[in-house]
Each structure stands twice: as structure tokens, then as C-alpha cells.
């Protein structure tokens, strides 16, 4: 589950270890937490000086420090580490859920978004790319979410996600999943996503261009759309039909829609018969190796009794 993966992530991050957390190196250790030390006869009690928060932070930030954060660490790692220095009580127990507004759990083997995620009451961005999620229940998502990224999972059904979706969601990423059209098109409307600005549906198995466009047209705030990698993107009039059908769209398949392009395709939306469910594929063979060149064979004499060998070749394309 996502909750268990997050707890494992915290253990690996070591928020209670020097220079983070509570200990003799900061004042929080001395405010009622310090255990009395035993001094042998004839010895003096030695109290180590405490470090300032600035000095502890420098140990995290200085690349020459043995406690320095890796250069490629995420902003989430850096935030939690620094909070654990400045206010260690905030990353202790359930309080850590209130610190994060953005949670990134990529390639952690997550299969389920469980009810424990609701503890992130301030969460606005949830990145769950490259996991093993096949279904996601919207009742387990914080209502504060504005970004939900599920790229490279196994999502094939949106019904549970749309049962009670976060009302303020602005970006929904479903690229590289298992969505099949037209059964899932009905969940991509303004009734479910009234504030959606960006939608990524790339590299799924969506096939019904006309049906999908009729649903997407209800997304009044949609400005960014990615559909490349679906079978419907092979239709010859695909881009022009979308550009003319969704006049508020600004970016399609990572390409800006300019005034010239919109003028070029003006009126195409009123000719749906041009968007037929067929594709045209042009294949150019540049070079073939291991095949004898017929022009290099010597011509046989007319009356020669030598056997004639005929070779035929074929190429198979699988889609």
C-alpha cells in the first residue's frame, strides 16, 4: 500500500539520525529529554556543546560533509531533512503527514492507494508514477489534491476514481496505462473534473476519436491534452479535428496550437465523416542485408540447361 511504502521511505531517509531529529546535538534534547549521566569518582562531567540549527543545516548542505544530501536528491527529501533539523517534533509520529504538500513515490512497488493517505490533509500534489496500481479509489484521496500523476501503472478502469474525485484537481496523468475506449470515455467529462486544466492520456488503447472528443468538450478549463500513442492518433485528420473541436485548447501532444494552425483546420469539426476509423502507415525500407541482389546475378544463356532458381521475399508488419 502507499502508506506502508511511505513509512519505509521515512525509515530509509533517517529523520531521527544526526544531524536531524532529537538528540544531544540540539536544545530539544535538553528540554526534559536528557537522561542523567553517571560520573565516576575523580572524573569531571563533560557536557558537549550544542550545535546551532544553522550549523546542523550546513552539515546537510555542504557537499564536503559526510552527512550531505546527494546532489540528485528530490526536493521532498531535502524538505523533510531540513524540517527534521529546524523542527524535529514535526517529523515525529503522525505530524509528518501535515508537513508535505507534495508527495512523490515513484517506482516503489505500490499496488494500492489505501485509506491511510487521507492523513495527508494538506496534500496538493501526488506523484505515483511507475508503480503497479490497477484501480484507485477516489474516497482515499485527499480533497485538497490539485495534481494526480499515475503514469506507467496498470490502470484500466476509471469508475472507482470517478466515484468521488477531488473537486480541485487541475492535472490528471494517466499516460502509459491500460485504458481502452470507448468504455472509459464517459469518465472524462466536466461532471467529474470541473477544474481540470491538463490531461495526459498518452499511450493507452483509446480508439474512438469522435466519442472521446464529445466527452472532452465538456471540460471547460482544459488547456493541455496529450493523446499521442493511442490508435486514434493514427487517423489522418486526428490533429486537425481535435484543434477545431476544442477551441480552448492551447497545447496538444506537447505542441503549441498557434493561430495559423487553428485557422488552417477551421471547419474540420463540422465534417466528422473525414475522421474515419482507419489509419495510413507509410513504411520506407532504407537498407536490407543478407538478401542477394538480383542485378548482380549473371544472365543465363538462352539454351543453357542449368536450373533456374527463383527466390521470393516478403516482409511482415505487426500492429
What tags apply to this protein structure?
single chain; 319 residues; alpha/beta; Leucine-rich repeat, LRR (right-handed beta-alpha superhelix); eight-stranded mixed sheet; LRR_dom_sf; LRC43 protein; leucine-rich repeat
Strand content: 5-15%
Largest sheet at a glance?
A: 8 strands, mixed
CATH-level-4 superfamily name: Ribonuclease Inhibitor
Question: Strand arrangement, largest sheet?
Answer: 1-2-3-4-5-6-7-8
- Helix-strand makeup class: alpha/beta
- Average per-residue pLDDT, rounded, comes to 82
Helix content: 10-25%
Overall geometry comes to extended
What is the CATH topology?
Leucine-rich repeat, LRR (right-handed beta-alpha superhelix)
Q: In whole angstroms, how far apart are the ends?
A: 36 Å
CATH class: Alpha Beta
Radius of gyration: 30 Å
Poorly predicted tracts of residues:
32-39
How many separate domains? 1
InterPro entries: Leu-rich_rpt, LRR_dom_sf
Keywords: Leucine-rich repeat, Repeat
Protein name: LRC43 protein
Write the layout of secondary structure elements.
Elements: H1 2-13, H2 27-30, H3 53-61, H4 75-86, E1 102-104, E2 125-127, E3 147-149, E4 171-173, E5 198-200, H5 209-216, E6 224-226, H6 238-245, E7 251-252, E8 255-256, H7 259-264
Parallel strand pairs: 1-2, 2-3, 3-4, 4-5, 5-6, 6-7
Antiparallel strand pairs: 7-8
Mind explaining what this structure looks like?
There is one protein chain. By secondary structure, the protein is α/β, with parallel strands linked by helices. The chain has a single domain (2-27, 52-276), classed as Leucine-rich repeat, LRR (right-handed beta-alpha superhelix) (Alpha-Beta Horseshoe). 18% of the residues lie in helices and 7% in strands. The chain contains 7 helices and 8 strands. It has an 8-stranded mixed beta sheet, with helices on one face. A hairpin with a 2-residue loop joins strand 7 (251-252) and strand 8. Keywords: Leucine-rich repeat, Repeat.
Amino acid at each position: 500500500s502507499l502508506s506502508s511504502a511511505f513509512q519505509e521511505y521515512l525509515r530509509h531517509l533517517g529523520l531521527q539520525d544526526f544531524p536531524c531529529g532529537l538528540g544531544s546535538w540540539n536544545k530539544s534534547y535538553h528540554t526534559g529529554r536528557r537522561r542523567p549521566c553517571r560520573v565516576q569518582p575523580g572524573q569531571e562531567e563533560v557536557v558537549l556543546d550544542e550545535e546551532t540549527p544553522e550549523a546542523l543545516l550546513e552539515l546537510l548542505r555542504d557537499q564536503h560533509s559526510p552527512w550531505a544530501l546527494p546532489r540528485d536528491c528530490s526536493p521532498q527529501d531535502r524538505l523533510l531533512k531540513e524540517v527534521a533539523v529546524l523542527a524535529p517534533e514535526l517529523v515525529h509520529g503522525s505530524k509528518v503527514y501535515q508537513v508535505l504538500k507534495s508527495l512523490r513515490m515513484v517506482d516503489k512497488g505500490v499496488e494500492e492507494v489505501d485509506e491511510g493517505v487521507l492523513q495527508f490533509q494538506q496534500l496538493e500534489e501526488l506523484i505515483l508514477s511507475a508503480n503497479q496500481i490497477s484501480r484507485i479509489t477516489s474516497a482515499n484521496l485527499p480533497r485538497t489534491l490539485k495534481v494526480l500523476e499515475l503514469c506507467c501503472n496498470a490502470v484500466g478502469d476509471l469508475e472507482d476514481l470517478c466515484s468521488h474525485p477531488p473537486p480541485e484537481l487541475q492535472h490528471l496523468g494517466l499516460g502509459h496505462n491500460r485504458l481502452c475506449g470507448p468504455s472509459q470515455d464517459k469518465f472524462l467529462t466536466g461532471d467529474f473534473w470541473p477544474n481540470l486544466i491538463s490531461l495526459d492520456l498518452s499511450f493507452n488503447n483509446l480508439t474512438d476519436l469522435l466519442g472521446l472528443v464529445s466527452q472532452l468538450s465538456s471540460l471547460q478549463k482544459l488547456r493541455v491534452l496529450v493523446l499521442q500513442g493511442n490508435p486514434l492518433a493514427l487517423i489522418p485528420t486526428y490533429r486537425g479535428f481535435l484543434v477545431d473541436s476544442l477551441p480552448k485548447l492551447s497545447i496538444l501532444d506537447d505542441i503549441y496550437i498557434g493561430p495559423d494552425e487553428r485557422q488552417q483546420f477551421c471547419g474540420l469539426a463540422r465534417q466528422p465523416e473525414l475522421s474515419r476509423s482507419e489509419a495510413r502507415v507509410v513504411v520506407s525500407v532504407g537498407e536490407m542485408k543478407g538478401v542477394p541482389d538480383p542485378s548482380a546475378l549473371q544472365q543465363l544463356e538462352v539454351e543453357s540447361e542449368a536450373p533456374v532458381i527463383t527466390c521470393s521475399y516478403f516482409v511482415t508488419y505487426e500492429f
